[in-house]
Structures are given as C-alpha cells and as structure tokens.
Amino acid sequence: MKDEERIRCPVHNLISFKKSDPDDILLWELIQTRPMQRLRRIKQLGFSEFVYPGATHTRFSHVVGAMQMARRMLAVLQRNQSFENDEETKADRRATLAAALQHDIGHGPYSHVFEELCGHFSLKKSHEEYALELLRSGEIAEILERHGVLEKTIHMFEKEPGLSVFNAIISSQLDCDRLDFLSRDRLHTGIKSAKIDLEWLFDSLRIEQTPIDEQGATKAYSFVFLAKGLSVAEEYVLSYVKMYNTVYFHKTTRGVQHLVRDLMIEVITNHSDNQEISGLPVIRFFKGERDLNAYLALDDSSIQAITHIAASNDWGRASKLAVRFLDRNLYKCFELPNTEAGTVPRARLDRFKQRLNESRIRYIDDIVSQRSLKHYDVTNSSFLMNILIRQGSEIEALGNVSSIVRAPARRVARLYFENREDRDRAEELFRTS
C-alpha cells in the first residue's frame, strides 16, 4: 500500500485510504480480496439498463460508497463525542467500516434472478448466508482476524438491526447502504427528482440517548435528526419510495427478470449436459458444485455467456428466449388498475386468472408491494428502528411528526405474457371479468 490510495467516485468524489490510519489499511486489504473484486463484475441494478441505459454501475462501486457513507455517519459520533475513544470503541468503528464494505459480497449474478433460480431448484442458502460464510473463512477472515475485528464484523450481520448505533449504520431505515444506493442509483439512472441533500442531512444528524419506553426510564444511543432536519428526513424517505416505484420495481425491468429466469430454467433443466455449456460456472453450480470457490466464479458474465450460446443454437424455447433477451423483445405487461382505496382488487384478480387458465393463456403473476416508511410505536421493542427526530424536548418517530411520509405502501398487481397477442386477449378478458 502506498502512503495514500484513492478511488474516484461520482457520488463521493475522492475516497482516500491512508497508510497512517489502521482502519484504512484494513479496508484497503479487504478491497484487494477475490470476493470484493468479484463485485466489479456484478451490476448494482441488474437489468435496469434495459430502461435506464446509464445504470451499468457495479456492486463494487456501491459497497465502496456505502463504506464512505459509514465514515460520515461515524463522524457524527465523533462530533457529538458520544463515546469514549477507548480500544473497544475503536474496534467497533473498525468493524462497522469493514461490515459496510463487505455487506454485498454474498450476492449472486443478477442478484434477484439468481435468487429466484435458487428457489426454483430448491436451493435454500441465501446471499446473506453466503456473505457470512465468506466472512468466516479464507482471506477475508484472515484479514479481519489479523486486525482484531473478525467477531465484531460478523456480529454486524447477525444482530437484530437497531441494537446499537454501530449496527444501525449497517442495517436500519437510515443506514449507509440506503444512503449510498439511493444517491448512486439516482445519478446513474438520470432520475432528476428523488435527490437527497446529503450535506444538510449529516449536518442535522446527531447521536442522542433516546427513551425506548413510555416512562423514559430506559434509554439507548440512537441517531436523531434535529428539528431543522425534518425536511431532509422527509426528502430521504420520499427518495426511497420514488426510487422503488420508478426504478427498482419498474415494470420493464421486472419483465426482463422473468424472461431471463425462464431462459435459465429451460437451459439448466433441458440442456445442461450440452458440451458447449456443461463446464460453465452457473451450470456446474446448479449441477452440484456449490462450495465457496464455485460460488465466487459466478458473476453477470456467467449468465451472459449462456445467453449468447443458447441464442446461437437450436435449443427450442431456450434459444428463442435468448434471442428475445439480446434483441430486447421482452415479455408484455398488463398492470391491473387498483381499487379506489389503492389496493389490489383481489376477488376480481382471482376471477381474471381463472378465465386466463380456462383460455389457456400462459402468464406470470407478479404482485409487488411498494416501499414506504416503517413505523414503530414507543411501546414497541423496535422503536429505535424508527427514523427519529427531535421536537423540542421530545424525540419522536418521523411517522408521528410528518404526515407526508406515513402513507401506506401501495400494492401493484402485474401479469406478464410471452407475446403482445396474449396480453391483448388478457386485457379484453379483464374488462369482462
């Protein structure tokens, strides 16, 4: 490591690592590991580039950015002088930064599609479990152990979110992960709304001892917005909702995911013994090679390779789906209109699907719940998981203070069809259901 290493980031500008700082030495060593470098080959937003062509940034860029957000959150502790600068606190800080940097190392290629494939083939291990396995073994474990924070870092992934301010930096409703991906994904998709004023957010943020029962007898340290931060706290939540509605749950992106999942199921089920693909990492994985080394060989290119090979062969439905993916000839979506109350019309949906089955129209059912602010009353043991704001002498949950951000999550029902003709027939059936 040189005296100073730097990474240029479009969100954070220069992210530096100094040889004179023990925390930075740890972080720079972790960045060089194989699990971290693999994240350069996994897109942060999967297939969102089918809608937003600039959304090609990687999970590597995101985790480095999340680490930088964690630094800024830890600076709030230092500014407030909330904790003694003893060895225990230094270790907590170091583990927090390491956890922020490592939080996505367990993700598979095109994360959501891969998870659905695993579910289809009854493989139960989640990306969180793979992350823990990578933390506990190999080069990452050796580095964390040498720097004295292996167990503390692992605990960041195992403890219930919100149990401490350090843990809250990693997993909460206001954590380093969300702060970075909302800022980064907005930038790369070109979304002009949903902006978060990060400078004002961090200027308004404090660490305070917060009552966690109605009598105020029990207190714990938590992040709290000053009253002046109400507008930026609302801005943050509205950005979260906006990005899920317009980017993460975009109907076209979901349609690409369904098509690629069907393609991969078809290839793995019916063509995995073909000599052209039998040795590829994804095929080996689903045929039984599932140790960590095999898992680390999986990245987005491993699925892209299968797509190109299938498209150049005559493998029936698998080849047709592969060509459709490469030509952006995607499944067609029909989104059901919601009721006046904003809910999915369940009875009508059930009648509709029954008529589709009777008409032998193949469809994919896709019901998603839009994201919103979670709210916990003071009597709830999860009260500290709220986004908190100071109002005079009281600390309140944001949902109690702002009517803007406490709207219930809206559910959206979509059906996907393999061609426009089936979608048009389905719309006609729905109108008469």
Could you explain how this protein is built, in words?
- The model has no long low-confidence stretch (mean pLDDT 91).
- It contains 20 helices and 9 strands.
- It has a 4-stranded mixed β-sheet with strand order 3-4-7-8. A 3-stranded antiparallel β-sheet has the order 5-9-6. It has a two-stranded antiparallel sheet with strand order 1-2.
- The longest helix is centred in the first third of the chain and has 22 residues, at 59-80.
- Among the domains are: 1-190, Hypothetical protein af1432, CATH 1.10.3210.10; 250-328, no CATH class.
- It is globular and about 65 Å long.
- It starts with a strand and ends with a helix.
- It is of the alpha+beta class.
- 51% of the residues lie in helices and 12% in strands.
- Helix 1 runs parallel beside helix 4 (87-102), helix 4 (87-102) packs across helix 8 (150-158) and helix 5 (111-120) packs across helix 13 (251-270).
